[in-house]
Specification:
four-stranded antiparallel beta sheet, 107 residues, globular, alpha+beta
Length: 107
């Protein structure tokens, strides 16, 4: 696990995401565009959609308070997806729910 100060950027919009981040403690946000951010609390998983879709990040992710993050590399995520079908299904659900959150925050 990594201890991160506020305003630590995990990835930027358009970046290739190197893995999945689990927010163990603290707060973070996904900034989709200037002035529009989706706040996230402990338990949130970041970077799932870009890993599953193989696309660049659709938002900039950063911590907004002192935070503890667990990081799983894209390779580790892929091995878990192949070995544990339930993990793959859960990741797909996380990505679907986050997409809905981002769409709802736009309205």
């Amino acid at each position: 696990a990594y201890e991160l100060p506020p305003q630590s950027v995990l990835f930027r919009r358009g970046d290739e995401v190197k893995g999945v981040y689990l927010l163990l403690r603290g707060e973070a946000a996904l900034q989709v565009e200037e002035g529009r951010a989706l706040p996230l609390a402990a338990g949130a998983v970041l970077g799932v959609r870009p890993i599953l879709d193989g696309e660049g990040a659709s938002a900039t992710a950063m911590t907004t308070s002192p935070s503890t993050m667990l990081f799983l590399s894209a390779g580790s995520v892929q091995r878990l997806r192949e070995a544990v079908p339930e993990f793959d299904a859960q990741l797909a659900e996380v990505a679907r729910a986050r997409r809905e959150q981002l769409v709802a925050s736009a309205s």
